Amino acid sequence: MSIDNESATRGLIRGLGLLAAISIIVGNVIGTGVFLKARVMTCNLGEPLWVIAAWVAAGLLTLAGALSYAELTAMKPEAGGEYVYLRDSYGPLSSFLFGWMSIFVSKPGSQASVAVIFAGALNDFLGGAVKHKLFEFHLLGLQVEITTIQLVAVMMIVIFTTINCATVQLSGQIASVLTAVKVGLIVFVGLGALLFATGGNMQNFLMAEQGGSCNGVSDSVRFGAAGYSFASGFAAAMIGALWAYDGWNNLGFVAGEVKEPGKNIPRAIIGSTILVILLYVGVNSIYFYILDPTTIAHVSPDSSVAASIVSRFSSLGWLEITGSAALVIFTVGLMISSLGTLHTSIVAGSRIPFAMAQNGLMLKRLGQLSITGVPITALIFQGFLASILALTGSFDTLTNYVIFGSWIFYGLATSSIFIFRKRHPELDRPYKALGYPLVPVIFLLVTIWLLVRTLIDTPKESFTGALLILLGIPVYYIFIKRNNSFISKAENG
After folding, report:
1. pTM for the whole thing?
2. What is d(CA 190, CA 13) in angstroms, rounded to the nearest whole number?
């Protein structure tokens, strides 16, 4: 059966062109990390050049993974991404656990997070007029407070879930528009700082952080603190940067809906990753040109380095770009950017339960499609989970726990390229990973190093994340007893 016929049989419509495919990735990747992580990374490493080095290293690691994923996704352009690669290489249990984590923790947690960020930014923009306490209650020993901020967040989840229930073509068009705003916001901050911001000194790159507050940064990974080591600091900075790069793998989830997948998928994955690296390294370099490292380390966790720089904009002739006006533009842009992340995350995330339901490993209804070829039941289910997390405020805890597990699956999925090359040399590969086998080996070695450092530096979060994943094992055996045919499919690859 050909790829296109297979997609047609399943009902998915290949309605995403190259621009929409790039927008899915860039829209997922660019969120708030590029505006927030400079402070923490400066506290981790102390010196601007090392911070820039961490951004470059994390970008190159992401690119190494993207090169491998481009081959895998072009070879298997089906809905589900890593779920498909793991299913056909390591077997059903690994793919189920990946899907379990994605469906119940990482995807709805991410969506709840960006929806609340939007609502909080809207509240700040309107001078606190949005936030009102409605009621509070106790749940499993925890005090849960419901405010209008959370209701606005839920409203955004409902709105964008509804939009995604229309057609995949409409979803792609909206993703393209919102992604353009994201890129424009970074360009606005970067070029605006060079043109309008007061100050600016190349000597800042040769300075070291001294006495910044570094609120919320652990002493074990804080530059200059007792017990600090460069290895721990660099690993922590890398993890911060990788969080900002996270989302580069999301096109695989909607691969079954990309036009001309053999051509467009590799171009989109590799091109968008390079674009994001250039934007991130460029704008962070401008941060340090405008502000010295101690000032950056002293920024409040409730604000961002980008906002501090934008507030320094001064008027320049007829443009009249003042700090207050620029801050308004930045705040509105940040709100739109968070909605773009929400939109593309909803698009990508809903295809995982759809793919699992097609294999009988999730409720059968999650595999249903609308008359326009959209997994509408999976979308509604995902939106429900994200809304619950937004209301309870538990998404931050869950997403912190799942970072460790996410990189385990990234490593496993990347390593599957070796398995497919050995087991199935006959498969059509429209694109072959550049630098194979060296590039995926480097990705795997650095991933192992990061996992080990994370396990050492944050053992509680790491073990809790692993436990959340392992809780899916009994659920897997419940489903697998109902559908033994899935094992045969997984074994046949």
Report:
1. 0.84
2. 38
